[in-house]
């Protein structure tokens, strides 16, 4: 009995201990979970909110979108001025990270791709449909590739930006830092002061050269019309002389064969007449030949004069164009992938096929990059304001192993380019150094479009590529300093290929291929 009671007592005690242990373990799990949540909340950064710098703001120079923080920050010459939360592209339709500029602005825009969706205060950064605009913000990346901003913020921003303003989309948080380096453009105050007068003078010279070229072309055409019938005319005189010579030869034979005095007299008369006719035919041929040679010489001279006038027209137009563009900020793109340097400046001329403005792209040259087989990153250098040294520059790095200064150390800008654009460099000018080639979305209506190829960009590659619209070079009269230089000789950059770099385990994303040929009635995607 005693043994049975002790066994029962031990069993009850074990059950109580087990229940207590379970309760203690459950309490411990609950405490750990609550503590973990608290720590997670404490470690998680606060969501971005709209903010305005506590000072008077200047005109925005650049916008930086952080995909990581889902935030956009606007900067003027003195620092940040506006911040707001954003919603970038969702998984599979990611907003492309890279370097862009505002290409077009529409106050009230509706999508042609997404069921007439309202996209107020739209500011386009690619022609295939990526833009900044007002939209709903759920607190995470949810768009189809655009950058949604708060409605009120987008409206406020719309009236403060301009075509060509730099937009940087960074995978991580990035901000401009001050930088000074010998490779950055240093303007010449005297050259800048002379630009307006020089532009007017060269524009007038270009107009005069255009008129002279038109007159020379008309004179050359008139001279060409004069000599067109000469060949047939000379053939007529040559045939007439040949007939006269034949008659003279026949008369000579008749005279030689005459047997009687009467026959000799008739033959002599015939010979004299034939000789006179042959002489006159020869004289007419000689006169016509001399006249033809004079007219041919005049035609050659007028043709050479027309060529020289056309060359002068082109030279003066180019000089006038450079003088006009010297009043605009200059943008330079240096690509390690293509080993080329590209220059863009806004002409402020409306694009002839609708939408946006034409950017001059007449400068495209090879560039030297030291250790060109080694990645250099992607860095954006911007002239923020004038300074005692010329310009105050900032640098934004969004990718790569090199810092901004090391990237500049590795690049040698050709002296002829520096001589052409450096002395008149203005605030808002920029230099972009990147591993990436220019995207196929870069064309005559864009500044630069360059995408980080190892970053997701579903919202970019899933859109219909912009047609490669071929616009004929204009050959008409001088057009206010731009004329036939709207559309440059340089070919469009090759489509951006998959980046061979596989940094950080990232995978390459193919870029859209350009469509070839004229596309009448082209409309931007989305």
Automatic annotation (TrEMBL):
Pathway: Cell wall biogenesis; peptidoglycan biosynthesis
Coiled-coil intervals: 199-226
Residue span, L,D-TPase catalytic domain: 61-170
Active-site residues annotated for this sequence: 133 (proton donor/acceptor), 146 (nucleophile)
Compositional bias (Low complexity): 499-526
Region (Disordered): 481-526
One Pfam entry name: YkuD
Keyword rRNA-binding: no
Entry keyword set: Cell shape, Cell wall biogenesis/degradation, Coiled coil, Peptidoglycan synthesis, Transferase
CC per GO annotation: extracellular region
InterPro entries linked: LD-transpeptidase, LD_TPept_cat_dom, Transpep_catalytic_dom, UCP029342
Origin: domain of life: Bacteria
One biological process term in Gene Ontology: peptidoglycan-protein cross-linking
GO molecular function terms noted in the UniProt entry: peptidoglycan L,D-transpeptidase activity; transferase activity
Family: Belongs to the YkuD family.
Protein name: Peptidoglycan transpeptidase, ErfK-YbiS-YhnG family
């Amino acid at each position: 009995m005693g043994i049975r009671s002790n066994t029962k007592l031990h069993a009850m005690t074990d059950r109580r201990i087990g229940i207590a242990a379970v309760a203690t373990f459950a309490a411990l799990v609950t405490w750990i979970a609550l503590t973990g949540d608290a720590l997670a909340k404490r470690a998680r950064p606060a969501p971005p909110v709209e903010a305005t710098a506590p000072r008077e703001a200047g005109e925005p120079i650049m916008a930086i979108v952080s995909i990581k923080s889902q935030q956009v920050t606007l900067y003027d010459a003195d620092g940040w001025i506006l911040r707001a939360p954003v919603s970038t592209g969702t998984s599979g339709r990611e907003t492309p990270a890279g370097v862009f500029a505002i290409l077009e602005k529409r106050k009230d825009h509706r999508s042609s791709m997404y069921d007439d969706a309202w996209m107020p205060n739209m500011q386009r950064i690619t022609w295939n449909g990526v833009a900044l605009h007002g939209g709903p913000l759920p607190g995470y990346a949810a768009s189809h590739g655009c950058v949604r901003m708060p409605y009120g913020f987008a409206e406020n921003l719309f009236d403060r930006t301009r075509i060509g303003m730099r937009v940087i989309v960074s995978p991580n948080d990035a901000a401009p830092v001050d930088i000074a380096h010998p490779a950055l453009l240093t303007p010449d105050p005297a050259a800048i002061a002379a630009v307006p007068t020089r532009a007017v003078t060269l524009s007038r010279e270009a107009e005069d050269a255009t008129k002279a070229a038109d007159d020379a072309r008309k004179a050359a055409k008139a001279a060409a019309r004069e000599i067109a019938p000469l060949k047939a005319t000379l053939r007529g005189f040559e045939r007439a002389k040949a007939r006269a010579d034949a008659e003279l030869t026949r008369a000579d034979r008749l005279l030689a064969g005459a047997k009687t005095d009467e026959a000799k007299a008739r033959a002599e008369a015939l010979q004299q007449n034939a000789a006179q006719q042959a002489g006159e035919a020869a004289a007419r041929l000689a006169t016509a030949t001399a006249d033809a040679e004079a007219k041919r010489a005049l035609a050659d001279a007028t043709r050479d004069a027309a060529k020289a006038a056309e060359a002068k027209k082109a030279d003066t137009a180019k000089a006038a164009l450079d003088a006009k563009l010297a009043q605009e900020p200059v943008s330079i793109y240096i690509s390690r992938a293509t080993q080329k340097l590209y220059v863009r400046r806004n002409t402020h001329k409306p694009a002839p096929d609708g939408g946006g403005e034409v950017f001059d792209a007449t400068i495209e040259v090879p560039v030297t990059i030291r250790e060109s087989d080694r990645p250099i990153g992607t860095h954006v250098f911007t002239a923020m304001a004038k300074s005692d040294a010329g310009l105050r520059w900032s640098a934004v790095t969004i990718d790569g192993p090199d810092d901004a200064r090391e990237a500049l150390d590795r690049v040698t800008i050709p002296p002829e380019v520096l001589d052409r654009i450096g002395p008149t460099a203005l605030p808002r000018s920029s230099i972009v150094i990147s591993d990436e080639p220019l995207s196929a979305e870069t064309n005559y209506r864009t500044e630069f479009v360059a995408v980080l190829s190892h970053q997701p960009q579903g919202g970019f590659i899933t859109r219909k590529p912009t047609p490669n619209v071929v616009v004929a070079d204009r050959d008409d009269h001088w057009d206010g300093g731009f004329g036939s230089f709207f559309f440059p000789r340089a070919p469009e950059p090759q489509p951006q290929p998959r980046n061979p770099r596989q940094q950080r385990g990232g995978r390459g994303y193919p870029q859209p291929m350009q469509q070839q040929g004229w596309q009448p009635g082209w409309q931007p995607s989305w």
